[in-house]
Amino acid sequence: MNKRRKNILSLAVAFLSAHFPTAVFLAVTLLTTAFLAAAAVLLPFPSIAMADGYEGNYVVDNAGLLSYQDADILESRAKELSEKYHANVVILTENEYGDSSQSALQLAGQNTEIEFEYAYVGEYYDEVYGVNNDGIICYVNMGDRFVIIDSTGKIQDTFDLERLDEIRDDVTYYLGSGYYGRAFERYLADVDEGFKSEGVMKRTFRIFSAIGAAVVSALAVGVSKSKMNTAKKQTKANRYQKPGSMKLTRSSDIYLYSNVRRVKRSTERRSSGGGGGHFTTSGGGSHTSSGGHF
């Protein structure tokens, strides 16, 4: 090694010896920055709420109330229920009204009994999922803190106004406290329970129908058999009495005792207010809705 190279090497060793902590710090800082930048691109953080919202086939979170993780879980669950019961189970959130607002305004204007919020939800469902296609939708508008549970198609018999009111009360409980993910989880659980209850009722009806048919058949056989007997036992005492042998001289009714039961009249009211009913959209879709503030 010549003298020049020895000098360069000596200078390098001397520099590193004097500035070793600084060099190590710079190297670690550069490597950490590069790693975090790559992680930000490749690994999205599901705990951060989405400013732009989430759009799935059954969960449309335009208000950005849900994290990616929560939205994906709800989408998967809503899809599962939709396929299981052959009905669309939908969640929609808004900060303001979307493309359906114009037709909703016209519909609400033509029928003063239909408020704009309900008309908007009905028009949205019909446009996205089809007119009178079986389905239920939970709609939340953060602009005026309003929630609507709406059913359409043949499942309006299952999810009538009374059941929709019950679901809305459950959802409102969580929405009012800011637990949006829990509110929609409860909505999906209530929908599942509603479909299951309807299935139990149908099976019970079939069982009682079969029992009723058996009872009617037994009665018919009994009547036919009784007609074959010519001598019948008498069921009244006067059949054994000689006409004119007994006369009734006095009769009276004696009131022995009474039992009076008093029941307090319920004065409970829904804390969220509420309204809704049945209406038809501009496209002819039949809807049942329950709505109120939270």
CATH class of the domain at 54-199 and 275-293 reads: Alpha Beta
Radius of gyration: 37 Å
Residue-averaged pLDDT, rounded? 75
What is the global morphology? elongated
Structural overview:
The protein is of the alpha/beta class and 294 residues long. The protein has a domain at 54-199 and 275-293: Roll (Diaminopimelate Epimerase, Chain A, domain 1), CATH 3.10.310. Helices cover 49% and strands 14% of the residues. The chain has helices at residues 3-42, 68-85, 101-110, 116-129, 161-175, 180-226, and strands spanning 54-55, 59-61, 88-94, 135-141, 146-152, 275-280, 286-293. Strands 1-2-3-4-5-7-6 form a 7-stranded mixed β-sheet, sandwiched between helices. Helix 2 (68-85) runs parallel beside helix 6, helix 3 (101-110) crosses helix 4 and helix 5 (161-175) runs antiparallel to helix 6. The longest helix has 47 residues, at 180-226. It is elongated. The model is unreliable at 39-51, 200-210 and 260-272 (pLDDT under 50).
SSE blueprint:
Blueprint: H1 3-42, E1 54-55, E2 59-61, H2 68-85, E3 88-94, H3 101-110, H4 116-129, E4 135-141, E5 146-152, H5 161-175, H6 180-226, E6 275-280, E7 286-293
Parallel strand pairs: 2-3, 3-4
Antiparallel strand pairs: 1-2, 4-5, 5-7, 6-7
Helix pairs in contact: 2-6, 3-4, 5-6
